[in-house]
């Protein structure tokens, strides 16, 4: 199998044991975080979304135990900064495009965070299968634009700040034509887009856009069944004690589900995976490693079982809380 180009990360060596840093507290916290892989292919209803009550019922444990872990994960100074609803851009009619760049230090990333059209940034130190050439540190920047012309203008601003090594703009007009989304559905999707899912209810949507709650519930269930959205989890790197490993696997032959099943059948990875997401020709998974040895094992397992992959260690991510998709 292809061997990774090794550049040993440093963050795990310096992880400290201060009381304000949180480690994974056994299976309970892992299971709560994993619930945010919803909705998945088998999901049928918005009522299945992750809630403390639903987790109590599914795991058959006391509400107080779940609420304690839930608050340590999602509360103030918790392990997770925010969770956001990401609508497929083709359903709303805006461009979501990807720019990748190298960087040397955090300040180079930070200067991008002031740009109003930045949706999110994912960055870290790279480990890749041989044959894939990338810089030592790489940032993936997700940018949105209302039109192709706006995207071109935004790229001029981006290029004045960084030197992109990769740019991809999706074919939104064609996707919109094929999606056949009703005006009502697009209005609801627009309302929930980029919001946190915790307080999104059929009644809340009905009150906000003046429709019947039953209509809102029916629409939400339809979105879930048809994979109209996914949840993005942004971890609080300043708080978590463990190192987050972001694995991206490219599947040019289209066997995405087969590769995910293979990865999740490896016990060491199965114990440490947190969230995953499929995309057009591949998938990404996030794992936790509490020691340098665990991080090395994740990298070695990837190199023995995968041909086309990229790993980010020292992983971090930023979400623009002031983002307005309808720029």
Rounded to the nearest angstrom, the radius of gyration is 20 Å
Q: What best-fitting shape do the alpha-carbon axes yield?
A: globular
Strand fraction equals 25-35%
Number of contiguous helices = 13
Oligomer: single chain
Please report the total strand number as a whole number: 11
What's the average pLDDT? 86
Poorly predicted ranges (pLDDT <50, ≥5 residues)? 1-25
Question: Which range best describes the helical content: under 10%, 10-25%, 25-40%, 40-55%, 55-70% or over 70%?
Answer: 25-40%
Helix and strand content put the structural class at alpha+beta
Major β-sheet profile: 9 strands, antiparallel
> How many angstroms separate the termini?
46 Å
Along the chain, the helix and strand elements come as: EHHHEHEHEEHEHHHHEEHHEEHE
Give your account of this protein's structure.
The protein contains 13 helices and eleven strands. It has 327 residues and is of the alpha+beta class. The strands form two sheets. Strands 1, 3, 4, 5, 6, 8, 9, 10 and 11 form a nine-stranded antiparallel beta sheet that branches. Strands 2-7 form a two-stranded antiparallel ribbon. A hairpin with a 7-residue loop joins strand 4 and strand 5. The radius of gyration is 20 Å and the shape is globular. The chain starts with a strand and ends in an 8-residue tail after the last strand.
